[in-house]
Amino acid sequence: MAKKSPFDLSKCARPNILALEPYRCARDDYKDDGTNILLDANENAYGPGLEMTNGAVNGHTHEKTADLHRYPDPHQTELKQLLCNLRNTHHHTTKSLKPQSLFVGVGSDEVIDALLRCFCIPGRDKVLVCPPTYGMYAVSAQVNDLEIVKVPLDTSRNFKLRPETINDALSSDPNIKIVYICSPGNPTANLITKSDIQQVLEHPTWNGVVVLDEAYIDFSPEGSSLAEWVTEWPNLVVMQTLSKAFGLAGIRLGAAFTSPEISNLLNNLKAPYNISSPTSALACTALQPKNLAVMRRNRQRIVEQRDRMMRELPKIPGVGSFLGGAESNFLLAEILNRPRSRGGQPSNETALALYERLAETKGVVVRFRGKEVGCLGCLRMTVGTEEEVDKLLEEMRSVLQDIYRNGSIGEAEDVQEQDANDIVA
């Protein structure tokens, strides 16, 4: 189904990017089938500088080890097809994603930066973000000398997107070229509704790009990803990563699903061999059916521990309400200046003290988010293993008890006393 959009790539992308002649290597024209004598790229024909025995390095064998002296595939077509297979769910369209609609980068951070360099002229153009949100949007914008326009999420409605306010900003400022929307949100852990995103995409006059960051989408209900929706909207980019649900943060792989026209520009401006051979091989392996089953089993274990944290954390005197949602692998919780039964209120001072003491004396590291919009007194806690959650619950109770008993923050309390008011549904 065709959608209305005024998007004109020729007027939105930077002229120098539209005119860019990408770096090309001989293997763009003559793909190696494994039988060619490769004398085109000044590689070391004797192999990697590693002590190897029967294809193994220090006893560790990997199918791509022997090829490390060769540059990786600059196109990553196999990897892109596997990512398309994963996201062609047909929940949102009858159309299918193809590799031509994909850009893969060194984590989502490369995707974020590439989009800015593609569409935004330094010192003139702007990007719009919706705090509280992922901090790298603003960092990358600053690096690229771009002004940041902020339209905060609606904190009175559980961090709901405000599409009408976003559209007003887009109408009043044509120099806004990119809107970044995080769904599920970070640190809010809630999904942005499809209808709210569509309202921004349907802006009648704005000529820019909507970037939907779905880093945590696999922790959300089945069919939540809008990746395949890029086949319907020419100015939609959906970012994803293998760092979260797939448990592959160490390989640094991010992806952008978008129109073939935008994908072509992103691929033109990237470094020629930005994805390493080991990263590509591991990602392709992870996307095979048997390993997708492993990911889904681990995801279920995380969801079970997430549900447990939602039950048990509010039983700790001094833990207040959960803010945002629970469609991710973390929770955002208020920390109070005294137990709820004693009239406790969200407190940055208490939350920061708890955060510091957990890390410094208990070996438990969470994130203090109290300075974010609408997150007063909040800690963001990633869902760990059963044993890690055991430790988190035990140490949070102990440290908060110590904070209140010593009267270092708020009034001294007898936190052994607990009544029904301490428990939050």
UniProtKB/TrEMBL annotation:
Pathway: Amino-acid biosynthesis; L-histidine biosynthesis; L-histidine from 5-phospho-alpha-D-ribose 1-diphosphate: step 7/9
GO biological process, one term: L-histidine biosynthetic process
Pfam families: Aminotran_1_2 (PF00155)
InterPro entries reported in the protein's UniProt record: Aminotrans_II_pyridoxalP_BS (IPR001917), Aminotransferase_I/II_large (IPR004839), HisP_aminotrans (IPR005861), PyrdxlP-dep_Trfase (IPR015424), PyrdxlP-dep_Trfase_major (IPR015421), PyrdxlP-dep_Trfase_small (IPR015422)
Single GO term (MF): histidinol-phosphate transaminase activity
Domain Aminotransferase class I/classII large: 37-394
Cofactors required: pyridoxal 5'-phosphate
Broad EC category: transferase
Keyword Amino-acid biosynthesis (UniProt): yes
EC number: 2.6.1.9
Keywords on record: Amino-acid biosynthesis, Aminotransferase, Histidine biosynthesis, Pyridoxal phosphate, Transferase
Highest rank taxon of the organism: Eukaryota
Catalytic activity reported: L-histidinol phosphate + 2-oxoglutarate = 3-(imidazol-4-yl)-2-oxopropyl phosphate + L-glutamate
Family: Belongs to the class-II pyridoxal-phosphate-dependent aminotransferase family.
HAMAP family linked: HisC_aminotrans_2
Record-given protein name: histidinol-phosphate transaminase
